[in-house]
Amino acid sequence: MKRGFTLVELLVVVAVIGILASIVLVSVGGGTTRAKDTRIISDLNMIRTAAEVIRVADGNYVNVVNNSDINTLMADMTAQNATAILRTGNAAGYCVEATMAGGKWGCVNSGLTIVSNCTNVTSCAGANNGTPTNISCACP
After folding, report:
1. What are phi and psi of 91, to 5 degrees?
2. What torsion, rounded to 10 degrees, do the Cα atoms 61, 64, 67, 73 define?
3. Which of 12, 14, 19, 54 is most buried, by CB atoms within 10 Å?
């Protein structure tokens, strides 16, 4: 008598592997968006650090709106699918905000505040790369 697998047994194994693979693919899909959001939050934190270095060096925040390091970080936020990115600043303060890939909102300002758990919020106000009319970062 020969030993081996029947066609039905092979089909059952292939079906189980297919179901498990689809479950893994679905769960990994959300990980990409979370990773992009985490990178955007990291960029916001690095913007905050760079802005404070600028303040210490210059005595104010004026150069936050045209600093090449901050421009690079903002370009990376765009590459991570951040939208509605706004940067405003003057001698007294600055504000940078963005809507993240997953729909959450992130903001960092001269008050050393970072907020990243709100949805559908805009807090910074004023001309992009210009003078702010509001530099508050807060969830409503």
Report:
1. -60, -35
2. 140
3. 54
Domain residue spans of the chain: 7-134
Amino acid at 136: S
Strands 104-109 and 114-119: antiparallel
| CB of 95 closer than 8 Å to CB of 128 | no
104-109 and 125-126 strand pairing: unpaired
Q: How far is Cα 89 from Cα 109, in angstroms, rounded to an integer?
A: 9
CA atoms within 13 A on the CB side of 99: 7
DSSP class of residue 46 equals H
**Would you give per-residue pLDDT tens digits along the chain (140 residues)?**
678 888 899 999 999 999 999 988 887 777 888 899 999 999 999 999 999 999 999 999 988 888 999 999 999 999 999 998 888 888 888 889 888 888 888 888 888 777 777 776 777 888 787 888 888 777 76
Phi/psi of residue 2, each to 5°?
Answer: -85, 145
pTM of the model: 0.76
Q: Confirm if 116 and 106 have CB atoms less than 8 A apart.
A: yes
